[in-house]
Amino acid sequence: MSNRVVCREASHAGSWYTATGSQLNAQLEGWLSQVQTTKRPARAIITPHAGYTYCGACAAFAYKQVDPSITRRVFILGPSHHVPLSRCALSPAEVYRTPLYDLRIDQKVYADLWKTGMFERMTLQTDEEEHSIEMQLPYIAKAMESHKDDFAIVPILVGALSESKEQDYGKLLSKYLADPSNLFVISSDFCHWGQRFRYTYYDETQGEIYRSIEHLDKMGMSIIEQLEPISFSNYLKKYRNTICGRHPIGVLLNAVEELKKNGIDMNCSFLNYAQSSQCRNWQDSSVSYAAGALIVH
User: Fold this and answer.
1) What are the tens digits of pLDDT across the range 221-271?
2) Arithmetic mean of pLDDT over the chain
3) SS3 string of the chain?
4) Among 44, 52, 55, which Cα is nearest to 26's?
5) φ and ψ at 214, to 5 degrees?
6) What is the pLDDT of residue 41?
7) pLDDT of residue 4
8) 225 vs 102, 141, 243, 246, CA distance in Å?
């Protein structure tokens, strides 16, 4: 039997972000240096997962709220873009590579999650093809660099969950969210607008198309800030906004709901919003990005 450690390669390095460690480090430092720490320490952050040229500056607003001195475990919940999945899945890897340094998976938490029978095991190929978790890794490595030997990650690929499954996973993960040494990273872009995304909702009362998109996204963001899963579900049903991380967000909101029952007081606020471009006509397309932080009082 081989004792070789199973590693997930940084498969999107060199295309979605630079593969050169020193260059990547300088970019992340540049974006983070532009941002204030206003919601620290965050217990959870909502952050985009596009190429860094599009969303790196926006994501910094979320990562700036992370306190590495208390964080020992980083849960990363990302949506599945390529494989049909009706539950959540765990990685077969033990180590996730980044151009900065390698991140190790917390095998004890993984074993506890596996024992629940609620998780599937994704293949290494599925893991390496998916970008929603990987795009968080360099930022996590950067935010945690002062304590890089003191923490582990818990990557969870989130499928197209029903509302009742979002509730089940929220309940399961709530005990981890209650622990101040854990950080939850919720990977999500916001509206994908345009014919190529088969989504062209337009409220003309808002003015230009991009203003309508912003209004729609900000309506969703303010509903997320209310921390009520049912309101977010209703918003999605009504407007069908193409928020790709809606299921990871739904799981977080249900975990929060569970903690609220125990009298734990939390608040969530969005700190930045951006669009990849400004849509003005029907041929245009854009993706929106938002950075938010959840604080536990």
Assistant:
1) 999 999 999 999 999 999 999 999 999 999 999 999 999 999 999 999 999
2) 96
3) CCCCCCEECCCCECCCECCCHHHHHHHHHHHHHCCCCCCCCCCEEEECCCCHHHHHHHHHHHHCCCCCCCCCEEEEEEECCCCCCCCEEECCCCEECCCCCCEEECHHHHHHHHHCCCEEECCHHHHHHCCCCHHHHHHHHHHCHHHCCCCEEEEEEECCCCHHHHHHHHHHHHHHHCCCCEEEEEECCCCEEEHHHCECCCCHHHCCHHHHHHHHHHHHHHHHHCCCHHHHHHHHHHHCCCCCCHHHHHHHHHHHHHHHHCCCCEEEEEEEEEECCCCCCCCCCEEEEEEEEEEEC
4) 52
5) -60, -40
6) 95
7) 87
8) 33, 27, 15, 14
Residue with tokens 């209004």: 215
Residue 279 pLDDT greater than 70, yes or no: yes
